[in-house]
Amino acid sequence: QVQLVESGGGLVQFGGSLRLSCSASGASLSGASMGWYRQAPGKERDLVAYIICGGSTYYRDSVVGRFTVSRDNAKNTVYLQMNNLKPEDTAVYYCNVAPSPIMSYWGQGTQVTVSS
Known about the structure:
Layout: E1 3-7, E2 10-13, E3 18-25, E4 33-39, E5 45-51, E6 57-59, E7 67-72, E8 77-82, E9 91-100, E10 103-106, E11 110-115
Parallel strand pairs: 2-11
Antiparallel strand pairs: 1-3, 3-8, 4-5, 4-9, 5-6, 7-8, 9-10, 9-11
């Protein structure tokens, strides 16, 4: 059973930075797509960024130039470096790992709060 453990969330001021980490255990996920979603209160869970096994990345428009997703396959870990944070980035951030199009695992979520 794959388990994902997230860390790095917290409270930060407008313009600050945070780095989220998501470590996977239970299987090698070097071939999986890995990414981050977020869910603000009263809103749907939205894709923020992901990185495929070949290294190609995708970002939602609102985080382009501010967030960077990366992975360390040797550590089964995916990261999200978040710079120039804004209050609208406040949400619970969830790690997602998809070894295949029909298989997906979620982390427990980590709160990110950006004060204005």
